[in-house]
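Budget justification note: compute hours in this period were largely spent on complex prediction jobs such as the one shown. Inputs:
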Amino acid sequence: MEGDVLVIGGGPAGMETASRISDFNRNVILIEKERELGGHILKWDRLFPDGVPASDVNNNLKESLGTTKVLLGNYLISIEKREDYHFIAQLNSGEIIKCSTVVFATGFKLFPAQKKQEYGYGLYERVITNADLETRFKKGDGLGKESPKRIGFVHCVGSRDEKICNKQCSKLCCITAIKQAIELKQLYPDTEIYCFYMDLRMYGRGYEDLYLEAQLKYGIRFIRGRVSEISQDQSGLVIVKAEDTLSSRPLKITLDWVILMAGIISERENDFLTQQLSLQLGEDGFINSVDPIQKTNQTNISGVFVTGSATGPKTLPEVINEARSTALSVNEYLNRVKNG
Amino acid sequence: MVNFGFKLSSSKRIDLDSSDSDLFLKLKAESGTITQCIACGSCASSCSAGNFTPVNFRKAILLIERGRNEEAKELIKGCMLCGKCTLVCPRGINTREIILSINQYYKKERF
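Corresponding output:
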């Protein structure tokens, strides 16, 4: 199979890049390892800060794919750059793809919360992650028919933690926790909700408003301190320990449910591809841009582009905007190499 | 009793399972603004009394939220109700109103 552009990854970044490049009448091939397009937003119910349904966004992205050739259930097993500007890639199906540019829209991975053993994810039934909660919201289950008495959110699980080799801030979890806390409060108005945080990084437009709303309208309570351990009592409830760092005292609370805000880490499954192309990765495992300010979507190898969360945690609007700018860069590059 | 040279100390731990939230809920009902605190400390740093006395509004409302009312009371005793904290609070918390409400809750005592 031959094409101008090979986009790796069918999440929001890959879909938007593919559809914008095909707008320039380029021949685009989009490959996705899963059987469905959408990536992480497939599992998400509603999106911050306004609660737009994730499925709406996904459908819009899918509809605008245009003439893009989509290969589902496919992934690369090798890729190589030829002497001329072409790339030769081989898929798991055995198919060979020849293309002029490659776009990495390989995204991220959610931190596997069981690695943080002291929180007991996978051991205690009532300790779940942000993604588990979204799945429950999507099914319409929430946390069961009966209203829980108390729920706690643990921020920064797998983020800002050198012990598990993830120094970076995942940047989306603070606002996600507040969004989910509000959603739970809407489902269960009488439930007490606590958020255990180190810093609340409400950097985006409307985020601080949502934080204020959580405090004022929904009475969600915030405790500054990283949870040190979680245990279970005989009745199956979970006991959370942290320091209330604002009053310098250890603190204990028994909760019905604990939601762990699993952070964003790099997708290490593609390291063999980045190695074959000699792409530069950062210490955190994300792909490095050739210039972090003006050429964020270009890599150290000409003809190889990167977009979306493959270069670090990003919000959806950031991903969509970056995908559009990547499409422009790819088109400029193709004009240059094809017209000499 | 024989003095063995050591004593038992009471736990410093905040136990939210058995905390006394009566005063906090009263203040929340009277002036919802108490829940808006982001613990920035503007109130405590601008406090006229804070330099010389234990007065600390930020810590006082935090302790009330955690049910440590007796300790909180000690932290507003020297307050002169000058209102500088109300002026500087970035979240618009009505600090004087809250202090007066706490005072009313413990009617017998005077600041």
